[in-house]
Write a structure and sequence with these properties.
By secondary structure, this protein is α/β, with parallel strands linked by helices. The protein contains nine helices and ten strands. Bound molecules: NADP nicotinamide-adenine-dinucleotide phosphate (NAP). One of its GO terms (molecular function) is methylenetetrahydrofolate dehydrogenase (NADP+) activity.
Length: 269
């Protein structure tokens, strides 16, 4: 069965409407794009539509020097939030964003400050996709004491998902797997909740999962011009799975918009 994220989107919509009523100007989001690939272009299309719908002024800027551009927009008082498109070209890493972005404009929650705050369970902005994953899990199943396997250890998805699920009150037992993990399917078969964020189309097949598990498919892959996840479609016969598109990505987009409104409120104080 596919997991429906309608309720979460409804709640986020309500939260955004409330924030909108408190902000005194149209929030401005800068989207920095460095050498876009097909998945980036597809994401930017959605970002344009979503920002327009919610009344966020989006400026897409082609960046040739990420550090310089981050420093410039960090200081620009008319800018509330800064977003950087992924994947980044090889000459950059997540560190370049983490050490340079102003934490108050870091609506993606990836700066040193925001990542550190998450470790201390005192969040300002947490990585949007990780928050989306946790929201979907919380809405659909009990987390406490469950065996959660996260496949992927990126700084923006896998690692923050693991930290957020370990948080006191959520209390999951978390295993994080990656490309060097041996016998991955033996580990994933034990998961009550499986989060897959690897960027490999249809990689997780029926023999990777336990019957009845909750599966969060974070992957966005373009195959023959179509968007597919990391989880193969036949897995829905055994488990509850988030759809791609229309699952984690939709929730992530709204969390980003909500964060832009939060940043705009902070910027006007
Ligand atoms: N829905 C959304 O809103 C959203 C947001 C962000 C990303 N995404 C998508 O999610 C996917 C992952 O993104 P990311 O930024 O986390 O990617 P990433 O930085 O490339 O990280 C991929 C992770 O997957 C691991 N991995 C790769 N192949 C594997 C395999 N065969 N078995 C086990 N682990 C494997 C890698 O292991 P190593 O560390 O050992 O290399 C790495 O930790 C991509 O498809 C991306 O487009 C979706």
């Amino acid at each position: 069965m596919y997991i429906d994220v309608k309720n979460i989107l409804h709640e986020l919509n309500e939260e955004i409407e409330l924030l909108k009523s408190k902000v005194s100007h149209e929030p401005k989001l800068i989207s920095l794009v460095v050498e876009p690939d097909p998945s980036t272009l597809s994401y930017l299309k959605t970002q344009k539509k979503t920002t327009k719908k919610y009344g966020v002024n989006l400026e897409i800027i082609e960046s040739h020097n990420l550090e310089e551009d981050l420093n410039y927009y960090n200081e620009d008082k008319s800018v509330d939030g800064i977003f950087v498109s992924r994947p980044l070209p090889k000459r950059y890493s997540e560190l370049d964003i983490a050490r340079n972005i102003n934490p108050k404009k870091d609506v993606e929650g990836v700066s040193f400050f925001n990542i550190g705050s998450m470790y201390y369970e005192e969040e300002l902005f947490v990585p949007c996709t990780a928050e989306a994953v946790v929201k979907i899990i919380e809405e659909n199943t009990k987390i406490q004491g469950k065996n959660v396997v996260v496949v992927g250890r990126s700084t923006t998805v896998g690692k923050p998902v693991a930290i957020l699920l370990l948080k006191r009150g959520r209390d999951a037992t978390v295993t994080v797997a990656h490309s060097k993990t041996i016998d991955l399917n033996e580990i994933t078969q034990k998961a009550d909740i499986l989060v897959v964020a690897i960027g490999r189309a249809n990689y997780i097949k029926q023999n990777f999962v336990k019957e009845g598990a909750t599966i969060i498919d974070v992957g966005i892959n373009v195959v023959d011009g179509k968007i597919v996840g990391d989880v193969s479609s036949e897995v829905v016969e055994k488990c509850e799975v988030t759809p791609v598109p229309g699952g984690v990505g939709s929730v992530t987009s709204l969390i980003l918009i909500r964060n832009v409104f939060r940043a705009a409120i902070n910027n006007s104080i």
